[in-house]
Write a structure and sequence with these properties.
6 copies of one chain form a homohexamer. Chain A has helices at residues 16-24, 57-64, 82-103, 137-156, 177-180, 184-196, 233-242, 251-254, 266-271, and strands at residues 5-11, 29-36, 47-51, 69-72, 107-113, 159-165, 202-207. Chain A is of the alpha/beta class and 272 residues long. Chain A has a 7-stranded parallel β-sheet, sandwiched between helices. The D-E interface holds D 82, 86, 90-91, 94, 98, 101, 116, 119, 129-137, 139-140, 143-144, 147-148, 150-151, 154-156, 261, 265, 267 and E 82, 86, 90-91, 94, 98, 101, 116, 119, 129-137, 139-140, 143-144, 147-148, 150-151, 154-156, 261, 265, 267. Chains A, B, C, D, E, F: This is NAD(P)-dependent oxidoreductase.
């Protein structure tokens, strides 16, 4: 059976999740093209690598040539001063989408984030149609790309899945992650489903494992066919022993974004 | 323990699903009365058979006499010229409901179809209250019977369950069926639940196995107690090897009705 | 300024509303073609008339030739035995839609009825997306045409507006009509809006004047641009003086369909 | 690992569920303080007991001193004359909440009941935001406490979970309980989740095991992390053999409250 | 034309709104029976008066004898210590409803209050089905009567309209009242509509004039036929000149309940 | 009576709407500070002007100093190449918000656009919570500012109203504007309401006059108190005489964005 794609470009391929995806997505394409600002040294036979900055439009355009799907996990992964967010996440993602349009890429899977909706509450149990509530400039940039990718689908027919990943780490590191965790294996399952579902059009999906606490309703992404297999119960005793209980009235407990809601403006922070 | 029903009439009993239901519903009634336009030769001791056309009101009325539940799976099972749809599905189903009213039948389980909502999209993730969107004259006839049965419940107290069956075949035959499949065993479970739930009033339920891709939300049929046990994962590799990927932008991928949306008017087709 | 249509066919043109529409729609077309089972004798210069039965497919097809819009108000206007409903409203409306498709008619305005949703309650304040709840075989036939016309739009691009007219009479005749009344002038406004709105696709609209009691929410038909100008306040004193108060617990008070919910099966009634 | 609470007060501790909770909640607190109108004789080393009436405000205030969580399952457990409901459930629960406020209790878990929504139907599949529909003065008192506890959260920051328990018995005793059952183990799981969830604010949750028939949608309590482990399938054959089928049209089948909807006014009943 | 009612009992008849209603409701009944704890001295020919406390069940029962509708505006009209709320609003309203049931009263119009939903926000634009959020013990007592009256409708068929009156004063006294005002004339219109609508079952309606700022959606009370005629624009300049702007971030600006959300527990306040 | 604001900054003050707002907003502030890339020569006594580019952060910061409200109508007003959109609308608006935060501005009124939701349909009748569907890079930039302003409210307490203006011109210029028109006077009313409502938090409002065709539901902006006074009926005859009917099936008729959905990528267009 032939693989669904010839060449998948993974941006942010040297990052925490990018590294996982190199292994997890190998069965889906003849070739993985890895892009990052950092060099990747352990290239596998099915891989090729390119080092460049997403703000460099020419480099991005070149990297997208010959690609039929993009897994766009690159860019700044947390709150940073405006200029960094602007270059890497806003300008960089525009470069990706515009290159994808020019080169006829079929589908883009984008690492959006819970921080696009970080000021929504657990108790609201929102679905993926709820209005955005970014908790950071980082989150605002995720909202920008969600809107941009919607535009590229509606006008140019470029399919996208925007994954609002909550907390994807080797294991839950604190009490919040007992409900916000997305295991690496489930993350791979989610990206795989996004790449292989018969039609995605423009889809937003939350990125969570099957944890006991259910903060949101992912029903409107049901056409992806994502079935999480992990949950945090096996880590519960350890986390609860090591980490003190949270304050139920603290903003970081109330809001989906967690401690992101507590940080100030990044340009203020940077000047401290 | 006595069985819930004395005599269940199964229409379309010689058909694909009718044949399955003969075996599956045997535990629910002392006697199964089998109706079809075709003769059934392998009658079991608990069965009796009648051969007639649903358009024949007198024959239908006679067949319903002494019956306390009807599993109405008869009629034209796919797109056909208007006159056939009219006779078998519209007039025929009216005959069934009117006979059921006259003879005091308690409950009817009707094989409606995904084609009553074939122009709804997967991405809409509709529930059973969403407006109808038939994709064929066949689908229009299903909408008619859903409305008719609602009327017989609201005014005459005759309970009905309308099952919007997606694709019930021995196994998924193409990529669409990887999400639209209803296994025969789950079909039997669904009809059984419909016949034994404490109260159904007038209920519409989707008919799907527990496949990974979830196209619709069946929560409003939760009082039936239907718990699907099958899914298509064990067929996935085979189907994906044998069938080419679908075009994500094709109407037959976008809409729940699949290839039904591609066919023209049946009276045109018939004249080709 | 040229008129929006060349020839509008009005079915049921000899009826109560048809007669009003002859006058009201004259400004919209060069020519009105009037169809009815009864002969119309007072033809105006802009009118032409045809006498035939909607169940006669050949006659319908002929009447639709050369027409660019149809105002389909013909058929049985209240509860009748099944055979009458079947012939005039089900078969007859199919003939209209199929002829419209064959002759390239642009838009159909159909007189649906509150009786398509007669078993919905005032207190539910439904909108036009709520599931149908017919209160009569007459109402079931209206549901059929709503589904049929949806199909003709989704598959063949034939635009339709289905008007769920409540009570269109010269003046409110009982206490229920104090809230269910649609004045003749507002009826004409509603049909005119349906014929001239820039796009209707397939639209369902309630048909009511601007009465104080608001039983339903017509917001989803807001693209028609219908602005009612009448209400029943000037009739209130007279009606309340002449008609006794209703029983708040009677089904005919509870349900939108009024006294239609009290009548039995028309075939029983016919045999009385 | 230290326990989440120092002292939990359980009211109604001598009752059916209270007895279960003594065992089930032991792991959550250093000490359980048991309150009831009846004396409890089998005190365990981690337990202390107090005998008093909830209508006695001074006694309640004293019992709450030194407590950091309250599991309030005391009061009249079924329909009773107004004066009893008033004293035990309305005045008694006010005493509990006011004492909790004065003594700085962190969280209250309250045994509300399906009878707060007993006149909602299975077919409506309500969620926890649906309007209350009490089926008894008992149910009205549950609505009162749900509103009172909401007030204590919104104004004074006292967290509460109101559990609308359906039928918590050793095993399903009739056909209704096949869908309304909450096993004792699941009841303990639900109270435990309510006491240990990171934040509850004011949450209403249905109390049901994972039975096949799903009468309601508990999604908006998903932040509790309650995962039921039991269902009634293993009791089905026995119950169906012993209990006759229900009448699908009986009010006690239609409404969530079951036979509570059939009983008259308790003060009438008391005078019989 | 005969009047709709023979005798209407108005409780709280000596109060601000009660006094208005004496005049406004005169056309609706042959006789008005006025009840209050205070004596009413200016009795009109169509009026009779009774002085008693709502907590006195025997007196209430006597006052309801011979009455066919009750306009229940009596009780404590603002935040007060628990014992007062309990006696006048909770016990008192129970007495009213129970007497109404015993004496076959047809309809009750109850003065509920915005304070039943005082912790909902303007920006939420709730409708009348939204969950209660009382801002005071006074508000909790309003929630209690809304639930109690629902019970009396569902089980005993006693119709009720609960009016969530916002601010009914001679004219808007502060900036909040520019949107929360209900003129006396509109109040009378609303009570009149509630008494004369063909069916109310159990209805909750907001009580507001047609002010420019629309804080809530009253569509689900559309069957009352209430059409407000007043608004606050003619008072705007005066109020804005006399009253300083509000703080947009203050809780009393955010929440529907206004300054009620700022007051503490009434039993604390009483002891100050 | 003192004015609500000391100094309002109007950006885009030399533009079509900016010119109107100079006159319309004069009563709301002691002083209007006018900003534009073009020089304004007809300064009134209450006005001062500054000429700068929004991409110049230092100039923006300086212009915001001493201002207590901003009416941000500046930036690129229609589709343009990415670099222009990026500089004027994305970077420029960030500069405005960041300067507003630093200088303690109380409220910002932002000219968002229908093009943020241009790919939503009339028939969907969306409200302001519906997901964004930009029809252009221009529309994407509007989505960016809506998300950015939400962030500045949620985290820094800076109030904003985002006005999704449809078509604000002297009079309706084509058939689409018969429903999409916002008169200049209504535009001024809407901005005035946004500046004077007691609390706006972060509000999105559609910007439309009271035209007969209602494409959207603005109920969730009801706390602004905007009451449109104009509609297009007086222009209808003229427009319909001059402009040909639209094609009901054209994308520019279907979608709210009108002809914006027909234009290609602006960078392609620019290179033509």
């Amino acid at each position: 059976m032939s693989k669904p794609y010839k060449t998948i470009l993974i941006t942010g391929a040297a990052g925490r999740l990018g590294t996982e995806l190199r292994r997890g997505l190998a069965p889906l394409a003849d070739r993985l093209r890895l892009a990052d600002v950092a060099e990747i040294k352990d290239l596998q036979p099915n891989e090729e690598a390119m080092v460049f900055d997403l703000a460099d439009e020419a480099a991005v355009t070149k990297a997208v040539e010959g690609v039929d799907a993009i897994v766009h996990f690159g860019g700044v992964p947390l709150e940073r001063p405006w200029e960094d967010i602007l270059d890497a996440n806003i300008r960089g993602s525009y470069h990706i989408y515009e290159a994808a349009r020019k080169h006829g890429v079929k589908r883009v899977v984008y690492a959006s984030s819970v921080h696009a909706i970080g000021y929504q509450t657990l108790e609201a149990h929102i679905d993926t149609d709820a209005p955005v509530r970014p908790d950071s400039l980082y989150g605002v940039s995720k909202c920008f790309v969600e809107a941009l990718s919607r535009f590229y689908w509606d006008k140019f027919g470029l399919e996208s899945v925007c994954l609002r990943i909550f907390s994807s780490f080797p294991e839950p590191a604190d009490r919040r992650m007992l409900w916000s965790w997305l295991s690496f294996e489930d993350c791979t399952r989610l990206v795989t489903a996004s790449l292989t579902a018969p039609r995605v059009g423009h889809t937003i999906s939350f990125g969570l494992s099957d944890n006991a606490v259910k903060p949101v309703d992912n029903g409107k992404a049901g056409h992806l066919g994502y079935v999480p297999q992990d949950n945090t119960e096996r880590f519960r005793a350890k986390v609860e022993a090591e980490k003190p209980p949270v304050d139920p009235k603290a903003p970081s407990t109330l809001y989906l974004g967690g401690w992101f809601v507590d940080i100030g403006h990044p340009n203020d922070e940077a000047s401290k």
